[in-house]
Fold:
Amino acid sequence: MTDVLTLALDVAREAGELLRGHLREPLAIREKRERADIVTLADDASEALIVKRLRAAHPSATILTEESGVHAGSDEERWIVDPLDGTTNFAHGYPLFCVSIAYERAGELIAGVVYAPLMGECFAAERGSGARLGELPLRVSSIERVADAMTCTGFHPAHYERNGKQFAAVSNRAQAVRRDGSAALDLAYVACGRFDGFWEFGLSAWDVAAGTLLIRESGGRVTTVEDESEPSTAGSILATNGRLHDELRSVLLTA
Ligand code: IPD
Ligand code: CA
Ligand code: CA
Structure:
C-alpha cells in the first residue's frame, strides 16, 4: 500500500469517527443554495479535520473540497474531498452516509477511499492494484441485462421534473431502482457488486472521484450518460458493471 492510500485511509477513518460523534449531539442544520439542500456543523468539522491532516502530510498539494472550495497548491497533485456525502441521510440518522477522499496526480486518479462509519465499511482503491472492502478484493457484478439489474440513482427532491422520465424508464425495465442518497456510497456499491448500475445528473468532482476509481479497479465502467467522457466535469455519470452499460445508457437516452 502506498503512503498516499495509507494517509487517505487514516484521514477518512478519523473523519468518519468525528461524524459518528456528531450524531449524538443536536445538529445545527442550515440550507445552502435551495430548499432541502442542507449542510451541518458536522460537514464543516469533518472538512476542517481532513484539510488539516492532508495539509500537514502533503503541504504542496491542491485540496478541492465541497464546503470551503479550493485550497491552492501544485497543479501536479490534488486531493478531492467530500467530508460528508449524504448529509440529509446523516441529519436523519439514516446510516447511508460516508466520507469520500480521492487523490489525483497529473490529472489521473491514483487513490480513492469511501468510508461509511455507521455501516462499518471502508472501500479503498489504488490505480493498478485493485479495490478492496476492508481486506476483501472487490469485483463488480456479472449481471448482463437491465431486466435483471439492481440499479440506483439520485436527485434532489426539487429536481424531480428533470429526472422523472429517466427514473420511470429504468423502473419499467430493471428489477429494482434505489435512491439511497449518497452518490459516493452508491458508486462503492457498484464496485462491490451490490448495484449493477448507477446514474445521476449534476454531481460534482467530490461526489464521484473516489467512487470512479473504485469501480474501474473492480472491473466496471464509468462514463457520462451521454458518451464516453469523464464524468466529473460533464454534469452526468453512468457507472455500471460494464456488461449492461450500453443497454442502460440507451434506456436513459430514449426516456
Ligand atoms: C449529495 C448526495 C446525494 C446526491 C446529491 C449530492 P451531499 O451529496 O451524494 O446522493 O443525490 O446530488 O449532492 O450534499 O450529501 O454531500
Ligand atoms: Ca456529496
Ligand atoms: Ca457533502
